[in-house]
Amino acid sequence: MSPGEVASLLATGQRDEALAAAAKAVNENPRDAGWRTVLGAVLVEMQQFPEGERVLRDALQLAPGAPEALFNLSVALRRQGRHEEQVDALARIAPAWEGMPRVVSDLSQAGLFLLLAGRNEAAVRAYVALLRLQPDARPAIYNLALALIALQRFDDAAAVLQHGRDAGHRDAEILSMLVNAKGMGCDWEGLDAIVEALRAAAREAVSPPAHPQSAQYLPQVTAAEQRQWAETYSRVIFAGLEPVSRPPRAPSDRLRVGYISSDFRDHAVAWLAVGLLENHEHERFETFAYSTARSPAPSKVGQRIARAVDHPVNATRMTGREVAERIAADGIDVLVDLGGHTQGARLDILAYRGAPVQGHFLGYAGTTGADFVDFFVADEFTVAPGAESAFTEKVLRMQRCCLPSDPQRPVPEVAPRAQHGLPQDAVVLCSFNQAVKIRPQVFDRWCALLQAVPGAVLWLRDPGDAARRRLLAVAARWRVDNRFVFAPHVPTREEHMSRLAAADIALDTFPYGSHTNAADALWAGVPLVTTYGETFASRLGASLLATAGLSEWAFDDEEKAMRAVIAMAGDRARLAAARDKARQARTSAAFDAAGFARDFERVLLQAAGRGP
Prior knowledge:
Layout: H1 3-11, H2 15-28, H3 33-45, H4 49-62, H5 67-79, H6 83-91, H7 100-116, H8 120-133, H9 138-150, H10 154-166, H11 172-184, H12 191-202, H13 212-216, H14 223-237, E1 255-261, H15 268-278, E2 285-291, H16 300-308, E3 311-314, H17 320-329, E4 334-337, H18 348-351, E5 357-360, E6 375-379, E7 394-398, E8 427-431, H19 440-452, E9 456-461, H20 465-477, E10 484-487, H21 493-500, E11 505-507, H22 516-523, E12 528-531, H23 536-547, E13 554-555, H24 558-569, H25 572-584, H26 593-607
Parallel strand pairs: 1-2, 1-4, 2-3, 4-5, 5-6, 6-7, 8-9, 8-11, 9-10, 11-12, 12-13
């Protein structure tokens, strides 16, 4: 009997006969790798996976690299849920094998599964193998870049995306990811030209859309363009999601408010929101927290949020439509999204319209551009009167800064400077913003500051080896490269706050300024000097300063901000007074969680049509 006849037996459902024939052939031909491959394939088809895997590995001992054996081994591994090993088996198959279309299909599926599961190292291996077979395949280029960025391998991601661009993939989606990867790696060479190509591509209706958050980091992109990018993205990404039915609900004086987030865990959004959630008036507001975090580790702040709301809901394993159906069944009056277009957010859930009124707050620094998001929570400064045209949502304004806070967190004890490699007597300027917020013009100004204040050092969050080398190379041109200290990652928020308190002045980035970092600086007793422009992302730090009574540190011009830092850093008495003011901000309206909750509740009633 031939291998083809064994395959025919399998195809007609005669599995036992196929197994017997293949086993007989192996006994008669013990050194024949081909027959062992046939036997292994039959065992796998009969769902005898461990035995099939053993036989196939025996075949590969006899014929290393045999493509049929490797492919059938990959099938055995996949069916056992061992996708990483499946990828490694597929990657060993020689490209000349006639069965390569099946290899390409399986690598694509395995790569996507691993990427969605957050197993990024293995996803990288899958897409690298796939690109060896199809070097210009756009989906593989895009997904490989996603996995590399998740691993913080920004230079590798940029190289892959540049390859895609060179291969003709010059759509807005690829270009926006390339701009982000280069930004996170502080790789500014050629960046302006790519940004202009991105702006042009983003105007094309036929282009896969740019990710709208990319626009918020770029000084070249206007507020009107931010809206256009967000509208295009939302229209494409959320197309075809039909609303769920909402059962009628009897009128009630108690407003049902749902908060939805993937960040009800050890995350900045949770740290900021917990004070609001703990201070709601439960006699007037019934609160729900829908957590969509993927496998969140237990955290103190997550536990506080679960205790603070009336109904914590674990929606981790629900589809978007299932979550919307739960929201509808819960009779939510106003649904508040805390994610927008940020990583891991689930704005798709709002597309199903589980609540009659839906809005965005806190997590995303600009319009969502989505027609299913009815309102956006801002304040008089972050969205000044007349600037509403940058939003598709109705702008509802708080009477204080719209950044909430947690006054329950402890006042940090100042860590010894030597513990962090800081000179004891230096003026320590700092910025703990992520590297993508550091634009070339901002960094040049920081270097100029160091020249103007000889006794100062600049303390930055460590952006990784490659980005650090690039920053220091720029600093060397200013002759200040010996005046930088880089802060490594620390595991807890308390450790970060303790070291932050050792700084003297917090410098801000532009056009995406400090948000959580602004609140952290003031709580740590460190004055923040910021510059604001026309966009929400650039104005939130200034709004927080205004609520804290410290508008003197917010400027509409970068030169003015620079002069203010020089004056503060060059006068020890003035610096000490500024630090006292920053510490006093802890008792200001900026950190009044109860007052914030009353103001936010007024906005909720307004959104529900129950207030002016």
